[in-house]
User: Fold these one by one.
Assistant:
Number 1:
Amino acid sequence: MGAIILFDGVCNFCNSSVQFIIKRDPNGYFHYASLQSEFGQSLLNKYKVPSNVNSLVLIEKNAAYFKTTAALRICKKLNSPLKWLYSFIVVPAPVRNVFYNIFAKYRYKWFGKNESCMLPPPEIRKRFLS
């Protein structure tokens, strides 16, 4: 298995982002679980992700990455021109995360949220971990 992306399963923007990644990951490198799921919570505990982290989390090569570091590492693996975004990794994480934190704070207000996690289509359901 490649890497696991933990995402906010009730966030409309986060669900759209997962769909975006799936379309640009034809080899199925990424697998997915919601932060709210038991599996997601067990990974957060296993990798000692701080409880105040309410962001995208990438589990890759026995390490957890979150916020912009996770997003940039994901971009690096996509079959898309977005790979060039990984070059922003040279910007210190505290600087990058200022913008991420602002966006994360207002994502429900701007994009809304669902009462439950999305149900993936059958053809990609196997990439979602419970």
Number 2:
Amino acid sequence: MGQPAQPSNRSLWLSLIVLCAGQMMIVIDQNIVNVALPTVQRDLGFSEANLVWVVNAYVIPFGGLLLLAGRLGDMLGRKRIFITGIVMFSAASLLCGLATNEAMLIGFRFVQGIGGAVASACILGMVATTFDEPRKQAQAIGAYSFASAGGGAVGPLIGGILTDLVDWSWIFFINVPIGAVVVLLAARNVPHETGLGGISRKADFLGAALVTAGLMSGVYAIVNAEKVGWAATETLILGPISILLLVAFVIREATAEEPLLPLKIFRSRALSAANLVQFLMIAGMFGLLFFGTLYLQKVLGLNSLEAGLGYVPIALVIAAVSLGLSAKVITKFGQRPVLYAGLVLIVAAFVMLSFARVDGTYLVDFLPATVVMGLGFGLAAPAMMGLGMSAVTPQDAGIASGLFNTTQQIGGAVGLTVLSAFVTARINDLGGADDIVALNGGYHRAFQAGAVFVVIALIIAVAMLRSSERVAAEQQQAHAPAL
């Protein structure tokens, strides 16, 4: 990977702002659409069955192309791939806002998902390699964590405001000026990288095809199962096909001369543990974002705008912790203890939510738990990503970044599907969806399951990271000179 000339400190931090702005724009778009779906359905005449494809048409290519886009960044230069993705994402956003029928919006959302994957796959890799000094790197990864989590929290709020006060098309149009500014600033301020020398004839095109097809079919099977169930014909066919394609991909990577995903990077327990922890943590966090919103609206009786405003405090806490506190405590105590503390706080927040009352209030039953959740996530996410990214070489930073993003997407999709099944079963046991007590009991089950996910993540982190530290110490001792 060609090294850029050393930029100024001011330019480095401006580069970070640009990258985080691009990440936040993409993350917000994943959540901003949901609140506008009823309006989109009315204006464009969507059928109930096709409405879900406004979401799925974006999620499927996004989740399927992250690994490939990350590796392309390593080969061709991450800055080049990032800018290409932002241009594609912004252009597709404009077309989405101009869509006049079902087919146009679904097709342009698919292109938007491709652009989002291409842009976001390399961002974490660029953030981690741009900052070498440990404390600055911790601050930079904290900012990236805020952009990812904060975007998810404020997406529904922004979507509600734009849809209610302007028009649903502006949830897409707003990306155009933001994307233009990001591209212009990125061209001037993001450090240039030459990549590994381009795509050679030995490039792993077969591996790229296998993993893209495997991930796309897997994501489709998961999101389809959420709507029609795991026993549906499509799910039963595509699920095994996805598994077979991904197994074939692993076999291919073990034998390819220039693999798309070098399996050697998984020799690092830190990278493997970080991805497993993220998978489980995000699976649980989707329970808060999705079922927490339902609790606010269906149990406490808040409208969509009020429910969106209800997530502002967690976004503010994540911002304060990720952008300020996390780097200081990571520098002082190390990444592992901070990760453990953050996961414990997330578990505590889920436990608090599992006691939310039918006759409760936002200030008592929801706000305290979300503050604790924001504190926990703001500590855990930067520490987790720092541990994972510190375990890979700069040449593999793009594929590692794509891997983290893929884990996040799959974790969210799997988590929401599994939690939905738990919720539905509990609601049916307690009396059905017409009973507010049954609804609240179902949401409690989602929060309890989220706590279990994060407890498992904590166990994995403690076991694997301690083992990793012991192995490193033994290797260092074995290579130490004899006295």
Number 3:
Amino acid sequence: MPIDAVVFDIGRVLIEWEPERFYDSRIGEARRRQLFEQVPLHGMNLDVDRGHPFRSSVYALADQHPEWHEEIRWWHDCWLQMVPRAIPRTVRLMQALQARGTPVFALSNFGAETFELACETYPFLRGFDRTFVSAHLKCIKPEPEIYAILERETGVAPQHLLFTDDRPENIQAARARGWQTHLFTAPAPFAARLVQAGLLTDQEAA
């Protein structure tokens, strides 16, 4: 089946997203595990991805857990340290696809404010042909609605989309709609998939 557009997740595909590594560096792995077991940091972050305000969501959670007050606030105050670098080869693949004339779309669970911070730090994130951010849409992957919005807004039939994401549940939801998919584990296998699909040459994917 020919591919008319490639859809990228962002976190852990184009930029690193490593809150656990950040906390390990600050308080050690043992205390980080304790923190994440006692405080629903990732659940709070999903609320931000749905469009809840970033700072007030983090600070409200900190107020609910005074024993971890400072550490929870780091999620807001030190957020950029949790996305410490781009993943250069995947960025090159995105740009190589565009150079070949293949549209590239973003489909990402991201907060409104954090997405702006990420774009300021990594300007290539403004380079997608279309960008679908969960906070703007008020729904998140793997909910069917967010995939339906992309289909509707781009006009690309599901079977002609190739989607890469690092989370199996997001891949499964896309596959259930008829999308072609690739579970992202590292840039090299994804590059090979793009070559296999005829979207890039070996040289372009290097």
